[in-house]
Amino acid sequence: MTKQVYFCVLAVLAFILLGQTTFAPAALTGLWAVVWLLLVRRYRKQSWVPFPKWFLVIFILLSLGIVYGNYQTIFGVEAGVAFLSTCLFAKCLEAKNTRDLLIVFNFALFVSASLLLHSQAFWMALIVFTAFLMCLVGLYRIQTGLFNQTKLSSNQLKQDVKQIFKFVGIAIPFFLILFIFFPRLPPLWAVPIQSNQATTGISDRMSPGDIAQLSQSSALAFRVVANMSQFPSRSELYWRALVLDQYDGATWTSSFFNQQIKNVQSTASSVPYQYLAADEQANWIMGLEYSIPQERYLQLYQDNSIRPTKLVKRNVPIQMLWLGRLPAEEVVLSLRQQELNLSFDEGRDIKAQQLAHMLFEQSQKQPEKYLQSVLAWYRKNGFVYTLTPGTLGGDRIDQFLFSSRKGFCEHYASSFVMLMRYAGIPARVVTGYQGGQLAPDGQSWEVRQLDAHAWSEVYLNGKWKRIDSTAMIAPQRIDTGMQDYLAQDQNVWGDESKAWRLQQFKFLKNMRIWSDYLSYQWQSKVVGYDADKQKNWLSRLGLDSSYAYAIVLIVGVFAILIVYVGIYWWRQRRQQADYQRAVLKFQKQLPRNLHKQQAETFQEWMQRLASQLENKQVFEQAIVLYQQIVFLEQQDSANTQDFKRLLKDCAIALKQSQKNL
Amino acid sequence: MQTGLKQQVNQWIAKRFQVDRSKTLRQKDVLVFIYKQGFLYLVLILITFIAGINYANNLILGFCFLISAILCISFYLTFKQLHDLQIDVVMPEVGQVDQVLSLKLLFKQSVASARYLRIEWQTQEQSVYIDQTQHSVELAVMPDKRGLYAFETIKIYSTYPLGLVRAWTYLYPKHKVWVAPKGYDWQKEHKNKPTSAQDSLDEFKELRGFQHGDSYQNVAWKQVARGQGFLIKMFEAQANHQHLEIDYQQIPAQSHEDKLSFMMGLIEQCEQLGDDYALILPHARLESGQGQSQLIQAKLLLAQA
Asked: What is the per-residue pLDDT across A484-512, written as a single tens digit (0 to 9) for each?
């Protein structure tokens, strides 16, 4: 019995360890794993001696040390969860009797619930649910272990799990009712929110020549919920992150001008939409060019980038407003700004500067014309769009423009901006995402990491104008979107590309789309089911107050109870054999004194009934058939039918005799 | 004060849960409440609820609802462990001091479902697993006093499936059992054992008809086989079988209890030897006879004396 229970302990610990691996510090998970292996070893040896005290103390101190070293505190959410898990492992080490095990399982329930503070993703919910099931199996085994001493076997486990599933199955309707109708309350007191550094696909710097091979992640970047018909077509969907306007010959960075706050009023043609970041702690909100945020904690900056003012964990959609297809607004550049957007190192990339001067001369020094001729020059000189351009060194722009001529969007945007600046036209690089794809259900728009893009903006006639030089080289990239482009054009993958890589990409892409879609549904329907959603949803059912929820809650619980009782009754009935039901039915028709008495067998009862009648034959036949059915187990449908018919005849005979009296 | 309250509760239980031979546990007979570790579980529900609300974490809140639902279901499942269970209480007609008095509980259910019951009685606890339609359990006790013996309240409970909730009921047997005195061991005192009736060295005397209480060892199987009737072989030693009148007044003992014990010893000896005996007590009298029913009658009289 002990072995069976300890098996559950190990399983629960394994699941909690699994849930912790991606969040707890590696040293800590390593330590837990060692403890887990020790427990497994003890389990294999079948000795249930608790570990020595000194071992326990060392383990706890070591864990606390790691927690403190990592989080600088042992309170707070993440440190707290790590601390709780440590306590659980320690308790398992010292568990020695049933009472300890009871505490272990109850505590494990709490620890697995606390894992949900790390992440509310679907996979985490699955892990927690499995741990929950194993805890219940453990508790169940403690209870039933007193009764049967069967050996541990996979069969036994299957049976126990089946039982637990049955219980959980019965509990699920109650759970659903509670989950849907239980009024969502505001927090009782303020709680700390974890504050670890955010990481995102977009970075605040860009250095095109450094990347030899761009890995294409099909991970979701963000999702937009909107009426897509009001949005421009895919080729016009530029999701803006930030502006990069300082170039040091290798890397682009963003200047301080962009950090200034900007205020824009919404217009009549604004289109509202919802933005759902895949990474809850992203640094930028990639709004559709040009958008303004509707949330108080988000701020719009001079370069039209949107950033949160404080770090908060969001898993609820952000309300945004797209300003519509407006003509670009006029901006006056300050002298300092103009300087910044024109600056270049004169001693670097001489060939490119010469090219710029030559083309500028050819276009009669007209910026518009010059711009077109630069684009035409790209087209004519055999540039290739590829994800494996190789690295650049030295004068990177020269190298790219005159020797390698292979690159992706960053190379094109970067070189184009520099060609503009050489000719004295202010220009800058904008990063963000381009395009995207409709979700499988057509209700939302998905933008993935591989849609990341860079383009240029040129200051013409007092306005910033967007020029996407990549569109010149690989128009399909923009028109059909990056995903389809990658799937269709094998050359993009580089020279060593193989067919299977393409296949792999297609397969992974589809997997990704579906898993993202599921997690989106999970996020919006389950995790994001907050007070507002509840109100919305329930008002559609005609419920508009907490009292109404409570009433529905109670009524629902009772309705489920009634259904359960009904099912139970029905199953009880079904367990009675046909012939038993026939006998009961027959008895019901008779007056009370003729009912079967406790002490009577069927035979005696029938004989008593028959004793008053002349025609005893039917009764005798019924007795014989009854005995056949019950004792010879010939309970087929024909016999049962006959038996029913005989009982009917008996009833008729009895009725007639009563009339005669 | 406390003992008074306890007594009152006990009396109430005795009245409320009296059982006469047989009882089917109905809704009002089964008590259900959270069991020891269930309180720990309640705390767990509370903590997860607060965490779910404070961190606005829907999944933790969902977890809280799920474990609450499990608790509710536990109430029902645990209740079902006892509900609709028929318990027949079978008691011996008469007991005897220093001999096992066993109370038989016969559990019956209409559908063979698994039940994990535990019986708490006096200081002992017994686990009973039932998966048939009938199951019997014997509870043994050694009465140490002559007279009327009242069975203590039997507590039947179950904490299945998760130990969060306990459903229990009490059985308070209405009938009491008379306990006869311990038989005085005559053989220990008088080493001159009377020869046993089964002594094969005895000379055969006659055949006679079977009487209730005769030993099967003495059946004259040959004659039975011939169809001459169910005859018993009588031996010399048995033939001069005694007829004993056990009279209270004549017993050479001081106290009342001693006298009864002597009488009991005599009766036992007579039964062993197959002798007839009559019992004469100041207020009662048992006619001469022997066998099981005679013994019970005699024991009953001695117990009541």
From this structure: 676 666 566 655 555 666 677 777 777 87
Assign 3-class secondary structure to A368-389.
Answer: HHHHHHHHHHHHHCCCEECCCC
The alpha helices in chain B, defined as continuous H runs, are 2-16, 36-54, 58-82, 186-189, 221-226, 236-239, 256-273, 292-304
Residue the block writes with tokens 């079978």: B90
Beta-sheet pairing, A445-448 with B18-19 = unpaired
Q: How many residues does chain A have?
A: 661
Place of tokens 């050489």: A422
A117·B63 Cβ contact <8 A: no
Tokens of A434: 């381009």
| Chain B nearest CA to A110, separation (Å) | 7
Residues within 8 A of A (CB atoms), B 68-107 only: 68-70, 72-74, 76-77
As a whole number of angstroms, the distance between CA B223 and CA B207 comes to 9
Smallest CA–CA distance from B77 into chain A, residue = A167
Taking contacts as CB-CB distances below 8 angstroms, the residues of chain B near A170 are 73, 76
At residue A245, the 3 state secondary structure works out as coil
Q: Is the distance from CB of B290 to CB of B257 less than 8 angstroms?
A: no
Query: For residue B227, is it left (φ>0), alpha (ψ between -120 and 50) or beta?
Result: left
pTM over 0.80: no
Which residues are B18's β-sheet partners?
B172
Which pair of tokens denotes residue A655? 């009725």
Structure-token pair, residue B219: 């059946």
ipTM of the complex as predicted: 0.78
CA distances for A525 relative to A120, A357, A529, A556, B50, angstroms? 12, 58, 6, 21, 22
B157 in reach of chain A (CB within 8 A)? no
